[in-house]
Design a protein that fits this description.
Blueprint (H helix, E strand, L loop, with lengths): L11 H4 L15 E16 L2 E9 L4 E7 L12 E7 L1 E2 L4 E4 L2 E4 L6
Parallel strand pairs: 3-6
Antiparallel strand pairs: 1-2, 1-4, 2-3, 4-7, 5-6
Length: about 110
Amino acid sequence: EAPVSGAPCGTDAERHGILAEKIRNARPRGRVSVTGGVVSSTPTRHGGSIACRVEIDDGTGTLALLFFGRGSIPGLIVGACVRVWGTALPDGTGLVIWNPRYEFVASTRT
């Protein structure tokens, strides 16, 4: 049976039910796995709790990441390149992933 996500057989995206691998393709309540550069990282408050809001850009759009209980995340600074996984949720200004899984990746920019 052909993959429904359009991803090649055997990729992480297919195995984990990822629906979007580019920010422009992300939909509310859809699972995403995207790689992008950090364009902002700011402490904020959300529902009375401290949080760190990080925005990434993959060249097709921006996506917010919210890390609750922390005002900053070591290494998630402007210019860092990261891959994130999670469920995109609407947040009034676009999409956000709460407490995403992430890893640092080498930048492909020259």
